[in-house]
Amino acid sequence: MTPAQVVEASIQAWENNDAEALAACLADDFFCVGQLPQKIDKKQFVDYMKTIMRAFPDWKFNHHILNTRDNEFVEVEVHPTGTNTGELVILGLPPILPTGKAITLPQQDWEYDVRGEQIVFLTTTTFDRILGFAAILNELGMKLPTYPQFLNPLESQSDEETL
To answer: Rounded to two decimals, what is the model's pTM?
Structure first.
């Protein structure tokens, strides 16, 4: 498979709620930055997919590939949508009960690093107040609490600032 086909397969696996197929697209040393406040590894990424799909069973990335370069890097534009019909339990936060609310997240640009027909690294638009998981909470009318473990280590913020 080409790098773009590997990326397409991973997105399709997520949207089909197929954890095994998603895991097969990811290298054992895979990691992702930008979706959650901290870097996540392969197991955490697959668990994140399961969490999102439980809460938003109709989740779609509404994506298209922007560019492939050096036969390794794939840039993808995503514009996620879904309806919150399941409980959302993540990051040690209290469970968020289904709201029935349809959400549309802001457009995000993701970059995949694909080697040997597996994704080794995914970087999404840097986690901040309106993108990544914070955008999901924002769309549901909630905000992440400000705790040191939820702050982006790449950003300098004081304890008084909120996410």
So the answer is: 0.83
